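Predict the 3D structure for this chain.
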Amino acid sequence: MQKPLIICIGAALIDETFKCYSDPLPGTSNPAKSSQSMGGVSRNISHHLALLENNVELITHFGDDADGNWMKEECEKAGIGINHSLTNKSSTGKYAAIISPSGELFTAAVSTDFENLITIEFLETKTHILKNAKLIQCDCNLSTESLSWIIRFSQKNNIPCVVEPVSIEKASRLKGLSLDKVLLLTPNTDELSSIFCEEHKESEDALTQIVINIGLQYLWLRNGKEGSTIYTKNEIYKKEAPTVNVVDTTGAGDAALAGWIHAFLLGEDISQCLNYANALAKLVLGVKGAIRHDLNPEILKVNL
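Done. Predicted structure below.
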């Protein structure tokens, strides 16, 4: 029997990482060791979900270039479906990160035309596959218009939708959109303020009220090494960050979300979903790059 279909919609990028030999300084060049790997929030999430033996389809853009061809080959090797992705002459997007010797992100930049390529018109040609989804995950590399279309499609068809804000600037694309019935929104503190155009309030009551006011099922406030908390209308679930010798923080948040989705579709309760999220984040924090290539369901279970 075929497993439930998960559709991930968002960016596929080449990650270029520069790990500085000493704490990086602004306004000057910083000696560093460089490396290159596959990235993009939704691509990373789909990769881990596929390694966990889920049925995953990725809707993204690949450039008709060496980087795009490499990513397509690697996605197919991992078991990610890419038949509904777009390939054209636009260059494959790139994400460049400068990280400290301890693996913490110092700053980053992204170069991509992605938001202008995965349009409403393109998405409308994919409704036949989208209607078959058990869950849709999207990220805010998409335009506001495309995000709105995906969320409304999910609402209309009663499909659980997970929205990943990506960054402070891109989170603002959710301003004013109806998030009613969205399964999960996953901002950090700054992204949350960007979405709701107000100074973030730290109180649990205020965060619970956000969930109630906008009709979310789950608000997952994620703050890296400070841990994370899921807010619902009636309950609050807190989780400390995993203890690990950090090699690279790139993609840890994407991995955590993949772990959460995997557990949710297994029917686990929210507390256990957070355990899966932490376990996968810990596995990724211990390696270079955004993907734990030796991942499988057994390895994840052992690390719960």
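The CA atoms of residues 57 and 81 lie 4 Å apart.
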